[in-house]
């Protein structure tokens, strides 16, 4: 009886979340020992992403693009990120760099199509503020609009993945290059 009530409640919750047209936003932040230019260049170089994000399996240049992905992306450049659990659940998203402003400390990627069947209107925004003693505060905001009821269930894992990336793996990767 209780399991049926719990199941019904969870089903209603998931359906109600999925039926909303609201976007989700997840934020993570950290302090990194480096300067703003090094940090922005590192984050703007897609080949670094699988090093710092556990769910990021690989990156490649999408067929519609001609840019390189082993250097910092410039505004207008594209990258396709493969994530999830390939080959069981190979998800991908094509990101376009829409803002790359070293002076302002902003790096933004956008994907209107997002992950087909899962999410659209996806954004990945890094804000970097240089501090004293050659350190930077970095904030990652991930935004997306879920397209099915499964997506909200994965938000805790995405949040954990983002926090692990910013608080553990990014500082480790940066310390290895400076």
How are the secondary structure elements laid out?
Layout: H1 2-19, E1 24-32, H2 36-43, H3 49-52, E2 56-60, E3 78-85, E4 89-101, E5 106-111, E6 119-130, E7 136-146, H4 155-177
Give me a quick take on this structure.
By secondary structure, the chain is α+β, with helices and mostly antiparallel strands. It has 4 helices and 7 strands, in the order αβααββββββα.
Verbal overview:
The longest helix is centred in the C-terminal third of the chain and has 23 residues, at 155-177. By secondary structure, the protein is an alpha+beta fold. β6 and β7 form a beta hairpin. The radius of gyration is 18 Å and the shape is globular. It has helices at 2-19, 36-43, 49-52, 155-177, and strands at 24-32, 56-60, 78-85, 89-101, 106-111, 119-130, 136-146.
